[in-house]
Write the structure tokens for this entry.
Amino acid sequence: MAKTNTVAKIGAISALSPCSKAPKIFRPNKAGAPASYENVRRRIPVPVSAGYFPGFDQSILYLFENQKFMRKRIPVFMILAAGIVPVEAFAHGGHGTGFLAGFTHPVFGPDHFLAIVGLALLSALWPNKTPWLPSLAFVGAMIAGAIAGISGVNTFELTEPFVLLSVFTFGLFLALAFRMSPVSYAVIGAFFGFFHGHAHGVEMPDGANIPLFFAGFTTGALLLSALGGGLSKMLKKPLVVRILGVLMVLFALWSSGRLFE
């Protein structure tokens, strides 16, 4: 009998609350929480103290708790975030003299960006145990090339052509679905990575903090490699990959025409 009275009192109090129109499972618990975590997992609208607030609380939490969703969408978010930042503000003209100056070189230089992302995408598309090997070889050779660049090794006449050739090569491999072993990709990546690094070293601003500058472009290259690996999980249709490869080839040809004008 006492149990029945208690239930009746709780029902009367619930009828006066702003959430009274909500289904029973949505009503506040004893601690005052608006809903359980399980409701969020099932993408059920969560009521708040003023009534329903559908599509907000549960949507935000769902994005972060759903690992499959985040794994597919994080690369898209990164691309959009990079596009929002004004490229003009991070041009190669030496904006900053430390970490930021190094970071912006590969991230906001379209030739570096396409080559690094393209290599990572290329090596991750085919099933293998070491998809990270080509990207690490590229970054390692890039550091060596940057050291050569700041040391006065003069290969600048070859640097820009080989940087564009790397974009052309990786784009062509993507367009043709050309498959190689990770070691072969690593050798090719290391070869081109040296010239990318040499460009970073030659273009390093005067008076720059060398360790911070190196840390900056290394971090940028590793992030771009991670972006390429993420894209490989997202791009399931071969036609889309081939189109990206064709666009890279066209960019390399267009840039080469401007280079030799």
